[in-house]
Specification:
globular
Length: 227
Amino acid sequence: MNSRGFIGFKPVFSLDRPLNMRSLSGAVFLIPTLMFSRESGFLSNTRLAFCAATIAALTMHGSLAKEPESQPATRAETTKLDSTTGFRGQKFGTPFSEFQGLNLEKDDGDLKEYTKKDENLQLGPVRLETIVYHFFQDKFFAVSLHTKDRDNTLRLLRVAQAAFGPGNERPNAKEELDKSWLGKAAEAFFTVHPQTEEGSLFIRDNRLGSEVEAYWEKLTNEAANDL
């Protein structure tokens, strides 16, 4: 138990030095610009780094949520994700032009992140800090839900497990609370910051997620050819 009374948290990385992304997803680099802008004001500097690490790791080559072939997700765990096609009535693949009230938080070329004006941040028993909508080439492909304290982080995990099942430990995960789920239509992962106890639940469309991974692989190969 640490000084804040939270059992099981052990530092995974230090925020004052570069992340070793091999320990997170098998990828060999981190896109440092894939984070929320400081001007938005809804995340602290620590939360910025945490969200950047988790989201960048997922959207780069190799998904955090995909399970090793030797440990496939059970049918009971993937039922809802087999049919998950969006979030709060907005389907994955919906063009940006069909959304209303979005605030641009980060522009990284083909990848952009938005928050919504007057967003309902109450998710059952969970009070969220923010909800981020992720777009690839102006198509909605993922959503991430973020908490800022221990109680709401645990509540968000319980909601995710009620929806998707107990979950599988992510490959190379350092925390027992870090979970992943893989369905036919969508995949999800849950990550806890080991120091601040903030949590993030990331849900993305499988098909568009694969396109994002291919996009990063293309950029990687192009950069490699320039070396």
